[in-house]
Design goal:
Length: 254
């Protein structure tokens, strides 16, 4: 693992440890009168502080943009970090362990390195532009299924593809779905996120594992995209052309 990813992983794990602790001890943390929403908000603040401290200590003066704040990078920002300590917030709010922490490095407006961690399972996905993607430090590649009817496809929300499907599962965290695609647990993903940089992080993992991505209509992804269809190249065209109902299944934990 390169030094940049090592620092990013340390930061992501620090945030993930906080979220895991809160999820496993929510009853205790709210027992003295603090509301659920207050505990969640405090945990996000603390998780973000942990990430910022680690990145700032390693990279003096570095800019850090937090998904849960209103600030965003501009064209003048040449090198910076993007942090989302909670992708899949609805799942976290109900104690469903399918959410993740994202820590990504950008240079000249392009994502170069990313770490994505599921706090509840200790799944760690990393990727560097041009250097491949890893799951728990082992290199990964996507599956090469050809037929839509033979595929496991993850959905974020109802979008018409699940109509008349044999089986449907909506996970609530497209970032993890795309990571699972990269490691061969899905064959295609219809992804939807709240911030473009969430999608960019997940797409770096999936593309470095061999996936092709585009809009659900087949158009190219751009810097403002928050939706994507992702699969292997052979399957991608079929998904766009077929417009047919497909079976949608998920991993056991989803």
């Amino acid at each position: 693992m390169n030094p940049t990813l090592t620092i990013a992983l340390r930061a992501a794990k620090a945030a993930a440890d906080k979220l895991a602790y809160v999820t496993n001890n929510l009853d205790v943390l709210t027992a003295e009168g603090d509301s659920h929403s207050f505990v969640v908000e405090q945990s996000l603040d603390d998780a973000a502080f942990r990430v910022k401290k680690i990145l700032s200590n390693a990279y003096d003066g570095v800019k850090i943009f937090n998904a849960h704040e209103s600030n965003n990078p501009t064209a003048e920002d040449k090198e910076y970090w993007y942090v989302n300590v909670l992708s899949g917030s609805n799942n976290f709010a109900i104690g469903f362990g399918y959410f993740c922490v994202i820590v990504s490095q950008y240079k000249l407006g392009k994502i170069e390195n990313t770490v994505i961690v599921n706090p509840m399972t200790d799944e760690i996905y990393t990727a560097s532009r041009g250097r491949g993607a890893q799951y728990n430090e082992k290199k990964i590649r996507i599956k090469q299924k050809r037929e839509v009817h033979d595929c496991a496809i993850a959905n974020f929300a109802q979008n018409g593809w699940e109509k008349d499907a044999l089986f449907t599962r909506i996970t609530g965290c497209s970032v993890l779905d795309l990571c699972h695609l990269a490691s061969g647990q899905f064959d295609a993903v219809f992804a939807q996120v709240t911030h473009p940089m969430e999608l960019q992080a997940a797409l770096l993992v999936s593309s470095e594992a061999g996936a092709l991505s585009g809009s659900p209509q087949g158009a190219p992804i751009n810097s403002t995209s928050i939706e994507a269809l992702v699969s292997n190249a052979k399957l991608f065209k079929s998904l766009i052309v077929a417009k047919a109902p497909v079976a949608v299944i998920a991993t056991e934990e989803a």
